[in-house]
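hey m, so remember when u said the tokens were messed up on ur end? i reran from scratch. heres the input so u can diff it against urs
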Amino acid sequence: MSSRLSSADAAWLHMDRPTNLMVINSVLLFDQPVDWERVKEITQRRLVDGYPKFHQRVVESRLPLRPASWEEDPDFALEHHMHRRALPAPGDAAALQELVGDLMTMPLDRNRALWHMYMVDGYGDGAALIVRMHHCIADGIALARVMLSLTDSEPEAGIAPAQDGGRPASSRLLLGGMPVPGTRAVSRTIRAGSALARQGLHIATSPSHAATLAGAIGRDGATLLRLLLTPADAASAIKGDPGVSRRVAWSKQFSLQGVKQIAHAHDATVNDVLLAGVSGALRHYLQGRNSPVAEIQAMVPFNLRPLDKPIPRELGNKFGLVFLPLPVGTSGSYRRLVEVHRRMQEIKSGRDGPVSYAVLGVMGMTPEPVERRIVDLFSAKGTAVMTNVPGPREIVYLAGTPVRAVLVWGPTSGHIGMSVSIFSYHGQVTVGLMVDAALIPDPDQIVKQLERELKALGRLDHEHRPRPASRPTAHAHR
């Protein structure tokens, strides 16, 4: 049975480039070995049998402007997608990070289902599971929930299909409860935005022409125009034309309660604190390489999927992207925290998410050369992709083995060469970097500075300082 790709899914499929693969990469860390045969059985029952796209492949249409389709992979076999390997000596974090970076550069075979898993033995006394899934299958929220649906709340659970539709213990995902607009409003935006597809290349090459078209999407025209006219980030030590090679690094686990205490002390949110820490770390890195800039644009996923319902079996993409200017040129940990909080509040009350989702839908309707120009236009504006996914609050188990930590990196498109992953799980927060190796050969330096920044935020004397003007919303992840 075949089904057509949605326009948004097609957009992510066609964004693939050798220098930027549209693959969502995740890593699960374990302190002890994992039963691989049991992992394969669970994957077959809960992933392959539960979601058709994990045994289907993408087939492009031979007719121009016709969408690609999901069709059954006639040669599907679990062993094509699930692999086991030993980590080279000395089996430490550096060895695992090198392996993860190497795997990130490998394109997925378009003749098969677009996912792979690698069980890596010999990571210290434990193991690591590397999961790679193409973005055209689903967005990061859906894939994180699918991945966590392979786990159980008890070590001795069976291998039956998950009963919760892939919904993890915590359903508050991405940016700590950023408000989700109604799907009816999103649909209106997409329908109106389809007029842009008929204008083809003019959208990508002429912002002034886009201004003429802005009326086609009514009240969201001003938002679209502002997104189109957002200036591109300047070239810097962390911004440039990306190459093929990737490197990754991740932080130690921070106490979520400790981060919450900092947030509460300054009327901020957990996300504000972590993003302020990232801003300070990037500021230090840029200054150390004589490349200071006033701010950089982070592209942040904005969820448009109902979080109180199971994800559909057909999965798909249901999110927009918003630009968050990070105040890397602002001196002082407290001032950066205030600025991040203020800017986050503005984003939460805006329409950038739904409008950018409409743009993704339009991109999927255009010829690939036009789509590439649009991708280049938008990706030139940003320096990094940043995701924040709160995971389960309690320990979960994969094949009876407790999961120690989780990282999930969103892909970077066009001219963007950095992805920052924030994942909270079982009272701990881990921050990971995926970077272009030519631009940032030493991501560990940014991670180390992030750890110093969070310590500095924890030492702030807040009693005699003015507080941010507005309090976070009731739904903020605190």
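this time it looks ok to me. Residues 166-217, 468-478 have pLDDT under 50 and may be disordered. if urs says something different then somethings off w ur setup not the seq
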